[in-house]
Hints:
Elements: E1 3-7, H1 12-23, E2 27-32, E3 47-49, H2 55-65, E4 69-72, H3 79-84, H4 86-107, E5 111-117, H5 140-157, E6 162-168, E7 170-172, H6 190-199, E8 206-209, E9 221-222, E10 224-226, H7 227-242, E11 248-252, E12 258-259, H8 260-271, E13 277-280, E14 289-290, H9 295-301, H10 310-325
Parallel strand pairs: 1-2, 1-4, 2-3, 4-5, 5-6, 6-11, 7-10, 8-13, 9-14
Antiparallel strand pairs: 9-12
Helix pairs in contact: 1-7, 2-4, 4-5, 6-8, 6-10, 8-10
Amino acid sequence: MARILVTGGAGYIGAHVCRALAARGDLPVSFDNLSGGHAHAVQWGPLVRGDIRSPAQLDDAFREFEPEAVMHCAASIEINEGQKHPFPFWENNVGGAINLTGAMVRAGVKPIVFSSSCAVYGEPDRVPIRESEPRTPVSVYGQTKLAVEMLLADLALSDDIRFAALRYFNAAGASPDAEIGEEHEPETHLIPNALKAAAGIGPARLEVFGSDYDTHDGTCLRDYVHVVDLAAAHLAALDRVMAGSSGLCCNLGTGRGATVLEVLQAVERVTGSPVPYDIQPRRAGDAAVLLADTELARTELGFVPEASSIDQIIADAWRFHARKWGA
């Protein structure tokens, strides 16, 4: 049994990573301040109430649990909030990563898997997006993710750490047994908000931003990847860095995509209820198409998404939300 410190282990991605670790016999230790996570999502190991902005709290967790590796999932993620209030994003995402890696160095723990994002690419010139594409983020969120990748690369040069950085595309879905799922407050992601609209919960009509993009139906196309598939990729990346490898930065997506309207059609197929929506003007910074080139993840991690069809993603998300809402 390996002991793994999972920052953000009470959050959406982190809880699924903890679940996957425990399923194979490891002990996940969730380190979370519960600002965005939920204590009820920590079911497979201890919860340490702590903040990555506190070096002392991190040092205490390393001393108490003596983890052998780190999964770093804790971050501020709400893109619009980052644009309005950049300092807290930099303080949490970058300052927190500096504190975390400092605690790792003091404890002599080298392996770390970092939750990065396709936001590091900004508005790409070519799709599918390869890892070799320029990293020119256009959001504060993307800039902080890129800054942490650069920090990890520099620390790896001096052999202070060994790392893998996983650039998520659109994480979605829930655990198949409906135990854990997406619970952001406020919720800004399309699929849970579309499910709310179909169920008659929350705003009466969903807002769809833009209908004149260069896609077959005019709405943005995104690469949705099931959170269970993401968790499996984390375990493969962890095994890689614990075995001595370092420096992998790779996309986690499917290479397929669904437009906003195709997602709404899938919601109707799954729930049996149409999604009422209104078209709104485009949002600044929304690219028409974001698709991952997945060859590197397949080659280096054996990553082949098994649960990431759009209907499977929405069916699992619907089971979770229907249980949560009593729908």
